[in-house]
Amino acid sequence: MNATTLRLSIKQWAPEDRPTERLQRFGTDSLTDAELLAILIGSGTSQYSAVDIAKHVLGKFGGNLNTLGKARFDEFEDIEGVGTQTACKIMAAVELGKRRQTATAELRPDMSTATRIYNYMLPKMQDLNHEEFGVLLMNQNYKLLKAERISIGGITETSADIRIIMREAVLNNATILAVCHNHPSGSISPSRQDDMLTQSIQKACQLMRIHFLDHVIVTDGAYYSYHEQGKI
Q1: What pTM did the predictor assign?
Q2: CB of 37 closer than 8 Å to CB of 90
Q3: Per-residue pLDDT tens for 50-88?
Q4: Long-range CB contacts for residues 222-230, cutoff 8 Å, separation at least 24
């Protein structure tokens, strides 16, 4: 960006140069320290853009985020464009960063077997009087990233849009997935429709290079696993 661009408000910048748009498109690590601070600051003044003010803040503390993290509230008072609310936002963001360092990592359940999938899904499905279809998205270590309900059906059947399943897998960076649905009747026998849907999901996963682990049919007391039956 040239000096002329910096004198414009951020709203006047080209969309691809705005910090918020770049964060959405390329992620937080694509932004400089000043641009990340500018998002917290929100808006500039008639003289300075939010990025300019963020640079002033960093300059006050020697361009060092560790020094900024030790700042007292009153140390923001003489920085032009930084009012009470902005100072509070910056200090709150710094504190959140500190607390993250001491937080316990989220425990993700292991979904590597049909039994584990069944035990995880049974409380969610055992009392349903209609069929529901869900997907379990996992990382390369079979740790659950997300469990998502894909569709709700009737008493005897449900359908699932494979495009939605694959979209969820891609959005969540899953490398392994399993699907499951319940049979309110208590029968663990798959239907022809279940077989056809399983085959279609398997083909889609092969195309997307995602490992299709299993399709588990859940009933109150028993399950059917396509993987254990050698059908996947």
Answers
A1: 0.64
A2: yes
A3: 888 999 999 999 999 999 999 999 999 888 889 899 999
A4: 222/188, 223/114, 223/115, 223/118, 223/188, 224/188, 224/189, 224/190, 225/114, 225/118, 226/190, 226/198, 227/114, 228/114
